[in-house]
Amino acid sequence: MSDTTEKVKCLIIGSGPAGYTAAIYAARANMNPVLYQGTQPGGQLTTTNEVENFPGYPDGVTGPEMMVQLQAQAQRFGTDVRDGWVTKVDFTGPIHKVWVNDTKEIHAQTVIISTGASAKYLGLPSEQHYLQAGGGVSACAVCDGFFYRNQEVVIVGAGDSACEEAHYLSKLCKKVTMLVRSDKFRASRIMEERVRKTENIEILMHHDTVEVIGDGQVVTEVKALNKTTGQEITIPATGFFVAIGHKPNTDIFADYITLDETGYIVNVPGSSKTNVPGVFVAGDAADHVYRQAITAAGTGCMAALDAERYLASLE
After folding, report:
1. 10 part of the active site
2. Which of 21, 79, 246, 288 is 20 to 30 Å apart from 164, CA to CA?
3. Is 173 among the residues known to form the active site?
4. Which listed residue (10, 144, 173, 284) is catalytic?
5. What pLDDT, in 10s, does the model give residues 238-285?
6. Direct distance between the N- and C-terminal alpha carbons of the chain, in angstroms, rounded to an integer
7. For residue 134, what is the DSSP state?
8. Of these residues, 3, 10, 80, 140, which one is catalytic?
9. Cα–Cα distance between 229 and 132 in angstroms, integer?
């Protein structure tokens, strides 16, 4: 064993509500957890300006502020929170080997994967500007739709999730314009029919987003291109929702952990267990349905409890 190898009882890969909640429970159970924050400390919530649907915050809280508080709570009980990201793993034996930043080697009795998933964006400079400014770009209608009550919004996407989010927004917003980039939906027939029958949803087929326009701080309209006619149109909107999918951050586990066809980790139903004994999953790395901070926190709790029981079984 080299000088750079470290033995730990519980290693948590990734931060966010799942990782920090797992750390709180693991630390209180004297598992001495070590948590590596990853490439995006705090996870997706750090790009969310206001969080109003997490219990215990009657006046709301910003995503970054919540993550700072969760980290502090985990550290209060002794979690070793570290910068860095895991670049390689080897889960072939009873000791789980993990490499951080391609250099440091860790041997962990238990591993909790809470690497989350990353929302896919169009990549437009204007989209990224207003995403970072917190002024009208979002990848989660359930999280942020409330802020656009009685306003007009645009949503991009053609799958079941896009249809579901468009329908959700239609209950809150005055008008929802749905931009479908091709000439057909990818969604199931029932989901497509639902949005087509909703009066305040306007569907523009074969339209690309050209630019998200605003005053530098907040979105005011969206420019789109009709790919059939070549005509550009400007759509009044205070919110721009991107619903073109998420990518779970699970690539480095693919050789050892069972993933579904889209890359999400397959857990044993009703638990956080993976196919590898001693390796557990929490949060959006395994959740392509709910993807909420509160559900991620709940599975973080489950993962820590499952890891604690696993360690007890070894004694």
Report:
1. no
2. 21
3. no
4. 144
5. 999 999 988 999 999 999 999 999 999 999 999 999 999 999 999 999
6. 24
7. T
8. 140
9. 33
